[in-house]
Design goal:
Strands 1, 2, 3, 4, 5 and 6 form a 6-stranded mixed beta sheet that branches. Helix 4 packs across helix 5 and helix 5 packs across helix 6. The N and C termini lie far apart (72 Å). The protein has 3 domains: 34 residues, no CATH class; 47 residues; 179 residues, Nucleotidyltransferase, domain 5 (2-Layer Sandwich). The protein has 13 helices and 6 strands. 47% of the residues lie in helices and 10% in strands. With 306 residues, the chain is α/β, with parallel strands linked by helices.
């Protein structure tokens, strides 16, 4: 069964090649002339919806039609996913398809598939992401996530982030949010440094080191880092470290408060966290003593209260 659109193409082909009239071509191909000459008019509702889809696609080039639908719903559009998909294809909007890597369960008891976060501040995870400035100087990013709420708790960047820098960042977060029960990471030298392990242990927290060469066991950090690179690093050119810091803060704000997350029922991480009734894990009673000890051993570890 050939539709009217294909028959219109066939009629045009016959008229051009055989130099015959449109009337004879339509009669020969069984295409009513009224159907052939009909010019479809896009409904006004579709026009406004398509404009909104194109605007979101420009702002979020990696969203895909499902991601665009989630943004539309948050803006108040009453539209189902099938209509969004139809208009997405009709307008030729697309996202390059990437091959998905296989997810393996792994054998480590510290992997995200075996020990899953069940509440706020149950498990934090972190990993480094690398980029560079416009002049080619290396930038080192450190995102820290709450695996239960998917919140990006910190998004730090510098030319160099050492073990002592990691302690500074963690101490600030613990001051603000309370201490997590576990911190998951790979076996990078900054994470397995003696100073970091001792600092974590003194606060009553535990480390979850994944198996070497098994990034899928730190699934939440890997997922965030992939989207972070795709939606931010690959789209921005940084003239300096300061510019990277400013843009990084803006991206973290957007990720936590404006970007809907499919695994959270299309809520943002901040919205999901607000609905979680589990209280933040309070400061361990040893914090004051440990802070005093740190001030004697290493003044650099004093919390930043500014």
């Amino acid at each position: 069964m050939v539709g009217p659109a294909r028959k219109r193409e066939a009629v045009k082909h016959v008229v051009d090649r055989l130099k015959t009239s449109e009337r004879r071509a339509c009669a020969g191909l069984g295409q009513p002339r009224s159907t052939h000459r009909y010019q479809g008019r896009r409904p006004q509702a579709d026009a406004a919806l398509i404009d909104a889809m194109r605007r979101i696609a420009r702002q979020e080039p990696r969203a895909g039609y499902r991601g665009v639908a989630r943004y539309l719903w948050r803006e108040g559009w009453k539209v189902n996913i099938k209509r969004v998909h139809r208009l997405w294809k009709q307008e030729g909007l697309r996202v390059p398809v990437k091959a998905r890597k296989r997810r393996r369960l792994g054998t480590s008891e510290n992997g995200a598939q075996r020990l899953k976060a069940e509440r706020i501040n149950h498990v934090w995870s972190y990993d480094f992401v690398w980029d560079q400035t416009e002049q080619g100087r290396r930038l080192k990013w450190l995102p820290i996530l709450d695996e239960h709420t998917r919140e990006c708790l910190a998004l730090e960047v510098d030319y160099s982030i050492t073990a002592l820098s990691v302690i500074d960042i963690l101490q600030r977060l613990v001051q603000e949010r309370g201490a997590p029960q576990f911190i998951r990471s790979d076996n990078g030298p900054e994470f397995i440094a003696k100073a970091v392990k001792e600092w974590i242990a003194q606060r009553g927290m535990k480390t979850l080191y994944i198996e070497p060469g098994s990034p899928w066991e730190n699934a939440y950090s890997e997922s965030f880092n992939s989207r972070f690179r795709d939606e931010f690093l690959n789209l921005e050119v940084f003239a300096s470290r300061m510019e990277a810091k400013v843009l990084g803060r803006e991206h973290r704000e957007k990720y936590n408060h404006r970007r809907p997350h499919s695994s959270l029922g299309n809520m943002t991480p901040a919205e999901f966290a607000a609905r979680c009734h589990a209280p933040l894990r309070p400061f361990d009673f040893v914090e004051a003593a440990c802070a005093a000890q740190d001030s004697v051993i290493n003044p650099k570890l004093q919390p930043n209260l500014s």
